[in-house]
Each structure stands twice: as structure tokens, then as C-alpha cells.
């Protein structure tokens, strides 16, 4: 045998083979497009969600700078600015804090910043710009509303600025204002001019202010590098090069705030990619495998004339690569668009403030191209290897899709029955059968898993996190995940609450009172925060907290209607209703730290907590989760602070002189079911007069849950549909190519007396056996897989109670049976186009 080594000839043969297999090519292209589409969509969603998380973290941290050097004097600032590794920088100077009474419970820091710092700190002016004159200032819309000022340039506001050494009281003119970002609510920044700092701050010694902990007249240099890799290492190198020893910080958005921080966040996306690759592999492999077997004579003849095994393998791989190149751009484009459409849906599933950012990273397309190519390469590799191993003599004699091994003769005592023949035919090519059944079973398992998860969403569990009765009136000035808003915090008054409780049909009205407390450090608090401060040198938040010597506490007084929701959130201790009502006990939550992995708590059951503003001490009855009684709270959590719960009567009492009375956050109405509509109508009349109060019913929250389920269904069933489509394409391709490859066999059967009706019925039997085998797999191994996956996913979705569902396995029977009949009829019509004589001649 003479070996050839002509690459052009192999490419020419591959091209001709492609042209002669248009139906196969279309099936392969469809499979690659679907595979690439799903992979691209998943990568787009993953990177876009990650970018959204990072954006939210950047806004929370205050900028998108890579890192910063803190508490600098003017000499240190200039020396660091000149370092060659710094691509871009911005600086800020600490001036003090606003001490005007309206900001008593809200820290507003006063800074002088440059234009670069403003640009990288997400400050987008609605009007105006940074101040120039000594009496000009920039505030955000939230601060203007607190001051009762209009959103307008030139407004005059009187402010007290505490510099640590003195308080400066002055009328300022608004030179610019910007939208208060919801990630930074309950805190604020004000910007003054260089002229102001020269007049009032320049004489303050930065070294002394650092010792006092006020850091007034110290600068912060925020910097950008060429990239975000090894930020801390780069910062240390700058310090080494300059010989300085100053505090520095890495923007946490580049370290901890990432979808990739926790492996569990990545698993769902990775599983989808693996399922997609597996489904695509099964289809593409099956197509090429059947193609090779069908064209076995062609490959045998090529080998006879000198084509080497390596060249035969390359002949298959070239065709696969060309089809991959054709399909890739379509799959990428459609997948990217699909990913962009799904990202807002996924973001809306979170109750947190949404910062949707779309990623167009080249890694999306690089990753999609690589994963798709790996799928195509693996799928075409084995059929190519099989083609290279074909024996020329065996190939020339080969005439059916039963494989290249030895034939076995079978004996039967009952004669040839259609059902028996069909059953034997199903198992003639076990490899082809396994591939087809795997693809179909995968579709059924995925659909049943998603169906089970959606069915496990529990309405009552969901409602329990948002409403404890039938109707709830809330003061939106206090209750907002976006932080405090302008308005009257006392709008939901005792008088209005009593009016609501007296509506005909109301059985009970449970109020929630709220107070924002600044609690001075005691030994338990100091024992937690002091080590934290020592280990976080340069962290301005912990430094400021230690300097002030107080932590924020959100104190709630709850009526007895909320007691039934307490036990599920207890992490330490026990809840006793009678003892709690005595007014001697308190429930406290875990303290809120930026790093969620730190489950710190200042107090434990049996400890005593004193509240000077209440003039009383309480014993801790139990420790609860940080989000305990979520529906009763303002849904805001203060850094280093915690929530505490008392009986409502304790906050209704007359408080010591100088203490503001508690505000009513909400009133929850438990109603007579027969009068619910009339109660809702009357309550709506009472609350519609003001925008500050909202009325929501259990039905409103049910509608929100339906929206959640609708989004989940769109994403889940959409994914199932694509995977199912791949499975059906695999089945269609297997049946059609099987019929084509067996046309000679069918011609022989017809020539010896089998009728067209019998042939058609035999093909239907074969299809139904495939359905039964699929059901056998899915009802045994499939049920086990569905159960474990669904239970694991349900455990991490907040509002689910796992229930195994069997409906998908029943629903799928008629769908698969109908698909089988349609495909079989179409395949038979394709076969019937040729006469028996024409098909018999092909045996020669």
C-alpha cells in the first residue's frame, strides 16, 4: 500500500464530503450553535453578575480606585504622586464632620477632593460642580432633603462643621449637587473648596490630628495601576521605593466582592456549562458516528488506495472544524444577546439594591469559543479514530449500521413477530442506543429538576418574611432598603394606628416601634472591636468607630403578633413569651460586619445591656440571626451595629428628658376573612392621603412571588427547552440516518412479503421501545439524580420547602411518544420515495 501525504488532497476530499452531506452539516451546525449559544449566555450572565457585584462593592467602598495611601501630610502626598507605577490618581483632604442637629444620627464627612477623585467616586452632578469659593459646598440630594433645601443651585444652607478642634458655623451656597446613591444611604459626603481649607484647616497639625483620631488636614491618595492584579504587592513596592511607612488599603471590591469568592456561587453556572457541553457532545458525536458508519465503504476505499489512518482521522476533524467555524459566530451572537436579556431577570431575584452592569469582556467569547471547540473536538475525535481503523476488506462488504464486528445468528421458537423484531433492532447498535438515551434522559432529568425546584417554592414561608398578618401599613420614610428618605418619620402616628385598629373587621393591630440608638462602648463591645481595629490598620470605618466610642443599634419594640416568628431565627438561648412580656428581657442579633464570615456577637444569653437613652437595663434572653423578624425591621443594617427587640410597651413608655420618642415603623392588621376587602378599602382611604405611608396585603406579596416564579420559569424552562431540543435533534438524526442506512434491509424485508403497514408499525415499535427505555432510566437513576440535585438547590433558596414531584416523569410520556410517532412517520415517508427495486439494486 502506497502512502500519500497530500494535505491539499485531504482538504479537497473534506470539502467534497461536506457538500455531499448537507443534512448532516445542518444538524451539526444546529448542535454547535445551540451549544455555543448556551455557553456564551452562561458566561455573559456570570461575568455580568460578577461585574454588577463589583460595581455595588465599589459604590459601597466609595470609588473604583485599586488602592489608597491614607493619613498623609503634604510632603508624603507629593512624594507618592510621582511614583512611575501609578497610572492615575486622585486625592482628598479630610476636613471634619457635619454636626448640624438634623444629621445627629447620620455621619456626613466633609472632604476637599479633586476632579479625578470625583470622577472615580461615582459622583455624577445633576447640576453644578466642585466648589471654588470659600463659602461654596457640594451636597447630595439626600442631605439637601434632610436640610429642607430644594434641589437647586444657589440654595443657602447653614451648617456646623466639626474639625475636631473647633466647630465652624457658616452659611454655604450650593455649587453643585448629585444623586444620593442607595448603596451609600444613611451616610453622606460633603465637599468644600481649597479656599475653605486654606482658611480654616491649614493651621491644624496633621500629626496631632492623627494622634487624636480625627485625621483632619490629612490627605488620602487614591491610585489606579495598569491592572488589578497583585494590588497589595504593588502598594508595598511603592512604599519600599519611596521609603515611606504610611497606612494603605486595597479596595475591597477587587478582593472580596466577587461572584468567584465562594465556590458555591459558581457551581450552578459550571453545571449548566457541563450539561450543555455533554448534550452538545452527545449530538455531535452521534451525528459523526452515524456518518462514519454510513460511509464506511467510502473510508475503506480511501484506505485501499493509500490514505493513512492519520489522514482519515484528519478528514473527519477538518469537516468538524469547518462546521465549527461556520456555526461559532451565530452561537456567540445569539448567546450574548440572550445573556444580556437574562441578566436583569436574575438581578431582580435579589431584594438588594440592583446595580446592573453588562460585561462585554473578551473572555466571554474566548471562553465560549474554547468550550465549544473542546466539545466539537471530543465529539468528532472518536468517530475519526473509528474511520481510521476501518479494514478495507471489511468495509467493502459492510452494508448496515449494525457495527463492524462479527454477526451472530439468532434462533426463535415463536417466529418473526413485529414487536420482537423491533426489540432486537433497538439493541443492534448498543453504542448508538446509549448515546440517544443519554441525550433524551438528560433533557427529562433537567426538566424534572427545574419543575421540582419551582414547585418547592412555598408561598407561606415567603410571606412570613414580609408580612405577619393580612394587611400592613408601613412608614416608607423609615422602611426602605435604600436607606433613610426625606419625609415625616412620625407620619404613622398613635392616632392613625388606633384608627386602623378600630376598622370594622380588624381582629388585632400589631405595631412595631423603632429607635436609632448610639450605644457607648462597654466591655463586651470593646473586646470584639479592639482586636479588629488592631488587625485592620488603615481601615477608616473601624478607626472612626473606635474614635467615636459608640456603635449604632436599631432598637425595635414589637407587639405580640410577631412573637410566633421569633423561634425560627434563634441561634442561642430560648424564647419565653411570658418572661419577654415582663419588660426585663431583650433579644439581640448578631453584629453586622462587612465580612459576613465573621459571625461576631457582642452579647450572649444572660448578659445585661444598658441603654442610657431608655434609662434601663435588660437581660439578653436569646441571640437571633442578623435578619431576624425581617418584615418588622427597617431592612437597614448599620456597620458594627446590631438589631435588638423589646416588647412594644417598653418603647411606648415616657423616656428620659432629651430622648426622642420612638417612631412607629408599621401596623399589621389581622382581619376577619369575610371583611378583608372592606378593611383594605378603608385602610387605603386612610393611607392614600400621603406618599409616606404604604399599604400592602398578602395578595400583593403573593403577586411578587408569582413574578419571582415567572422569572425562574423563564430561565429554567428556557434552559430545559434548549437541552431538550438538542436531545430531540439527536433522536431525529439517529432515526433518520438509521432508516437511510437500513434502506437495503427494509427492501429485502418487503421483497419477502412484509407489507408497508407492517414495516411502519415495526418502526413505531422501535421508537416506543426507546421511549420505554428512556422512562426506565429516568424513573430509576433519573429520579435519584433529580431528588439529590433538587433538594440541594432548594436548601439554598430562601423560600422553599422541598417536595419531590413525579408529574414531569408522567407528562413526558405522551410528549416523547408523540415525538416518536411524528419522526417515524416522516422517516418512513422519506424511505418510501424509492421503489423496492431501486433499493435492492443498491445492494449490488
Give structural notes.
- It is a single chain.
- With 844 residues, the chain is of the alpha+beta class.
- 51% of the residues lie in helices and 16% in strands.
- The protein is built from 27 helices and 20 strands.
- Strands 11, 12, 13, 14, 15, 16, 17, 18, 19 and 20 form a ten-stranded mixed β-sheet that branches. Strands 2-3-8-5-7-6 form a six-stranded mixed beta barrel.
- Helix 2 packs antiparallel against helix 12 (362-388).
- The longest helix is centred in the C-terminal third of the chain and has 44 residues, at 698-741.
- It is globular.
- The protein starts with 6 loop residues before the first helix and ends with a helix.
Quick structural gist:
This protein is α+β, with helices and mostly antiparallel strands and 844 residues long. Helices cover 51% and strands 16% of the residues. The two termini are 26 Å apart.
Name the descriptors:
51% helix, 4 domains, 844 residues, membrane, ten-stranded mixed beta sheet, alpha+beta, 16% strand, globular
Amino acid at each position: 500500500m502506497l502512502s500519500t501525504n497530500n494535505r491539499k488532497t485531504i482538504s479537497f476530499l473534506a470539502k467534497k464530503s461536506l457538500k455531499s452531506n448537507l443534512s448532516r452539516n445542518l444538524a451539526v451546525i444546529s448542535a454547535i450553535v445551540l451549544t455555543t449559544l448556551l455557553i456564551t449566555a452562561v458566561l455573559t450572565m456570570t461575568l455580568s453578575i460578577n461585574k454588577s457585584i463589583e460595581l455595588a462593592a465599589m459604590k459601597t467602598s466609595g470609588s473604583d480606585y485599586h488602592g489608597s495611601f491614607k493619613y498623609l501630610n503634604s510632603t508624603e502626598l507629593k512624594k507618592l504622586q510621582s511614583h512611575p507605577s501609578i497610572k492615575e490618581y486622585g486625592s482628598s483632604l479630610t476636613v471634619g464632620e457635619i454636626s448640624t442637629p438634623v444629621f445627629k444620627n447620620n455621619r456626613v464627612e466633609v472632604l476637599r477632593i479633586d476632579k479625578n477623585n470625583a470622577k472615580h467616586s461615582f459622583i455624577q452632578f445633576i447640576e453644578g460642580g466642585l466648589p471654588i469659593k470659600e463659602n461654596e459646598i457640594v451636597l447630595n440630594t439626600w442631605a439637601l432633603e434632610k436640610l429642607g433645601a430644594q434641589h437647586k443651585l444657589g440654595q443657602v444652607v447653614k451648617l456646623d462643621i466639626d474639625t475636631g478642634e473647633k466647630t465652624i458655623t457658616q452659611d454655604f451656597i450650593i455649587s453643585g449637587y448629585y444623586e444620593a446613591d442607595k448603596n451609600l444611604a444613611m451616610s453622606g459626603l460633603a465637599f468644600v473648596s481649597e479656599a475653605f481649607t486654606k482658611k480654616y484647616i491649614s493651621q491644624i497639625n496633621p500629626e496631632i490630628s492623627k494622634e487624636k483620631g480625627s485625621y483632619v488636614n490629612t490627605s488620602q491618595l487614591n491610585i489606579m495601576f495598569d491592572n488589578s492584579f497583585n494590588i497589595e504587592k504593588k502598594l508595598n513596592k511603592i512604599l519600599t521605593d519611596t521609603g515611606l511607612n504610611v497606612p494603605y488599603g486595597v479596595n475591597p471590591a477587587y478582593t472580596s466582592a466577587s461572584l468567584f469568592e465562594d465556590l458555591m456561587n459558581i457551581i450552578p453556572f459550571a453545571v449548566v456549562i457541563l450539561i450543555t457541553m455533554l448534550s452538545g457532545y452527545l449530538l455531535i458525536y452521534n451525528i459523526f458516528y452515524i456518518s462514519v458508519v454510513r460511509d464506511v465503504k467510502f473510508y475503506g476505499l480511501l484506505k485501499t488506495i493509500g490514505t493513512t489512518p492519520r489522514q482519515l482521522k484528519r478528514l473527519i476533524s477538518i469537516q468538524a472544524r469547518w462546521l465549527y467555524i461556520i456555526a461559532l459566530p451565530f452561537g456567540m451572537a445569539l448567546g450574548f444577546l440572550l445573556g444580556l436579556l437574562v441578566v436583569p431577570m436574575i438581578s431582580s431575584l435579589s431584594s438588594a439594591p440592583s446595580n446592573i452592569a453588562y460585561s462585554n469582556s473578551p473572555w466571554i467569547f474566548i471562553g465560549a469559543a474554547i468550550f465549544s471547540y473542546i466539545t466539537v473536538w471530543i465529539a468528532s475525535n472518536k468517530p475519526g479514530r473509528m474511520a481510521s481503523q476501518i479494514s478495507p476488506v471489511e468495509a467493502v462488504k459492510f452494508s448496515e449500521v449494525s457495527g463492524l464486528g462479527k454477526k451472530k445468528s439468532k434462533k426463535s421458537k415463536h417466529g418473526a413477530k413485529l414487536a420482537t423484531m423491533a426489540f432486537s433492532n433497538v439493541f443492534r447498535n448498543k453504542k448508538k442506543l446509549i448515546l440517544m438515551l443519554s441525550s433524551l434522559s438528560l433533557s427529562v432529568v433537567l426538566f424534572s429538576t427545574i419543575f421540582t425546584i419551582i414547585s418547592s417554592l412555598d408561598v407561606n414561608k415567603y410571606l412570613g418574611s414580609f408580612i405577619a398578618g393580612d394587611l400592613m401599613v408601613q412608614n416608607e420614610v423609615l422602611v426602605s432598603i435604600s436607606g433613610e428618605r426625606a419625609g415625616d418619620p412620625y407620619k404613622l402616628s398613635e392616632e392613625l394606628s388606633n384608627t386602623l385598629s378600630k376598622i370594622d373587621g380588624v381582629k388585632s393591630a400589631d405595631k412595631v416601634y423603632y429607635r436609632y440608638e448610639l450605644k457607648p462602648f462597654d466591655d463586651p463591645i470593646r473586646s470584639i472591636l479592639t482586636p479588629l481595629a488592631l488587625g485592620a490598620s488603615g481601615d477608616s470605618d473601624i478607626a472612626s468607630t473606635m474614635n467615636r466610642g459608640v456603635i449604632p443599634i436599631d432598637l425595635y419594640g414589637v407587639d405580640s403578633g410577631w412573637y410566633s416568628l421569633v423561634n425560627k431565627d434563634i441561634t442561642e438561648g430560648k424564647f419565653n413569651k411570658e418572661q419577654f412580656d415582663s419588660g426585663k428581657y431583650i433579644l439581640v442579633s448578631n453584629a453586622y460586619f462587612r465580612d459576613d464570615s465573621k459571625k461576631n456577637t457582642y452579647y450572649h444569653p444572660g448578659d445585661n445591656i444598658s441603654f442610657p437613652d431608655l434609662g434601663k437595663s435588660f437581660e439578653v434572653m436569646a441571640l437571633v440571626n442578623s435578619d431576624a423578624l425581617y418584615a418588622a425591621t427597617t431592612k437597614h443594617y448599620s456597620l458594627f451595629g446590631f438589631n435588638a427587640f423589646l416588647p412594644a410597651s417598653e418603647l411606648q413608655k415616657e423616656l428620659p428628658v432629651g430622648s426622642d420618642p420612638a417612631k412607629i415603623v408599621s401596623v399589621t392588621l389581622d382581619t376577619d376573612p369575610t371583611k378583608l376587602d372592606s378593611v383594605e378599602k378603608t385602610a387605603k382611604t386612610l393611607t392614600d392621603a400621603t406618599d409616606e405611608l404604604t399599604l400592602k396585603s398578602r395578595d400583593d406579596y403573593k403577586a411578587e412571588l408569582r413574578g419571582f416564579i415567572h422569572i425562574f420559569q423563564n430561565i429554567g424552562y428556557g434552559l430545559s427547552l434548549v437541552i431538550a431540543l438538542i436531545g430531540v435533534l439527536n433522536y431525529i438524526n439517529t432515526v433518520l440516518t438509521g432508516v437511510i442506512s437500513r434502506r437495503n434491509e427494509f427492501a429485502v424485508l418487503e421483497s419477502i412479503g412484509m407489507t408497508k403497514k407492517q414495516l411502519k408499525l415495526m418502526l413505531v415499535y422501535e421508537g416506543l421501545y426507546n421511549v420505554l427505555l428512556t422512562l426506565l432510566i429516568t424513573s430509576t437513576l433519573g429520579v435519584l439524580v433529580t431528588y439529590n440535585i433538587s433538594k440541594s438547590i432548594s436548601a439554598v433558596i430562601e423560600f422553599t420547602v422541598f417536595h419531590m414531584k413525579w408529574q414531569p416523569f408522567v407528562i413526558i410520556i405522551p410528549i416523547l411518544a408523540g415525538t416518536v410517532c411524528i419522526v417515524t412517520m416522516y422517516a418512513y415517508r422519506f424511505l418510501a420515495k424509492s421503489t423496492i427495486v431501486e433499493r435492492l439494486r443498491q445492494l449490488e
